[in-house]
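Session log. Operator J.P. requested a structure for one protein chain; no other inputs attached. Running the standard single-chain path with token output.
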Amino acid sequence: MTRKLFSLFVMFLCVHFYQSSVLSTKTDHLNSVRPPSNIKVTNISSTSATVSWDPVIGTGHLVKYSIVGIPGSGGSQYTTSTSIDLTDLQRCKQYQVTVSNVQAGGGDSSPVFFATANNYCLISPSSNPGYVPTLYISNVTVNAVGLPPMVSNSGNSAFTKYFEDPSRKVKLVLGSTGNTISVTKAGPASQSPGYVRVLVDFDGDGSLGSNPSEIILFSNGSTNATVTGTFSVPSQNPQKPCKLAMRIVSSPSVGIETCSSNGEIEDYEIELIDPASLAVNETAKSKEISIYPNPAAETLHISGISSETDYEIFSASGQKTGEGRTSENTVDIRHLAKGIYFIQLKNKENTTRLKFIKK
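Structure written below.
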């Protein structure tokens, strides 16, 4: 009896060891064919990007990429490394990329999305850390023929891109003449000769100022606080994939550079409008949303909304700094540090994003 029990015990151990070995082998196999994780896309330019991922067991990886919604518009590349450079991308397109482990049964990773840039040189405060312009842009006003003016008030910053702020979109009518722009300077150097240049990428080639007709204002050493210019708009829409831009550069120095990290630079989105569409009236101005005072110290007043509207506040770097619901068309901003912010207002149909300054 004892011998039989011992034999059964030995048999049980053998079976258990075999099952554990098989399970371990299956687990190792699954790990070996599992797609890479922590996929990142960096060094994004107008036509290239770098894709990287964490190492996994295996000898190679297949990277597949395409324009979102257009299968077959990209390609695939094989590599034995943990990163690869994609160099045949189209500018201003939304892409998706996956990485798979080239092993039998290995599937694709979850897609990672990214967008290629335009050719405009990108400036940011990090380009010149700690730099505070002595001559900066405090107001930009564009009076386009047949359209409401675009008015942009701002504080001192090295670079600001207003593409995501619909209230600062510059709308221009194709073929129009007699449009005007004014730029007001401020700062310690505003009483000295200052230099202002305004450029519009009318042909959509991604290069600002490559064509002399794209320079719509150049103030060379004026001591006036506000400088103005009159300009015309081409009759043809370039129909390019990228958003068109208007760049304003101010500098206290003679050698004003379109891509300099000195002075101040502001970028605005341009929308070119067919003159035939002007027959359709825009939404009544009384229904537009606006905030005041701006700059503000304690309370923002908001017109054009219901008494209670959900809002979110973001810093200039994109970090959320507050959220809630308006009370009697006001928002308390006493908790914010001094600086530039964006408030995003949400109603049933639309989302409006406006810039303000906490003083």
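Operator note: The first helix runs from residue 2 to 33.
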